[in-house]
Amino acid sequence: MPQKLVLDTDLLRARIMALEYDHLTEAEIRRIYMEETGKEPPDYIKVYHSDDFKKGRDFGFDGTIVHFYDEKQGINQKYTITRGSEEHENDTWKPHDWAYNMFGILAGQSDRQYRYALRFDKIVTKKIQEELKRKRATIPLETIGMGHSLGGNLSQMLQLIEKKI
Fold first, then answer.
1. Considering all CA atoms of the chain, what is the largest pairwise distance in Å, rounded to the nearest integer?
2. Residues near 26 by Cβ (< 8 Å), separated by ≥ 6?
3. pLDDT at 21 over 80
4. What share of the chain is helix, strand, coil (3-state, %, to 5)?
5. Region 22-43: what's the mean pLDDT?
6. Helix 26-37 to helix 10-20 angle, to the nearest 10 degrees?
């Protein structure tokens, strides 16, 4: 039986996605959830940022994964938020996203942002699975992807292509 989505309205999802560009935190998620629903959010919220998993080189991929878990409410959901195209990266003038849009998506000559999104997703999913094992969780993990523009493309690719974790 599918779980009730934690981020179950367009406005709630849009507010969370907008804050992802400014380094989304658990406290901000809790605040927005309360403002939008008038209810307490799930007990456990963990935020993972792609910047924390980069190893030196940056090909432009940026995103965040938010894991919600609440045994009492029957919630175990992972939201992968991938960013849309940005003019340039924060620490360089290079327009990584637009180059990828042109050569990756349009011309089909590169899949590196997808590969980095997939790598990030696999690493974080493994961490989540380890945490769930420690908690002896019985609720299956549901995966939800969110994004717009380039981020929407990456989210769709992550959802459509079978992932081996």
1. 48
2. 45, 46, 47
3. no
4. 45, 15, 40
5. 95
6. 160
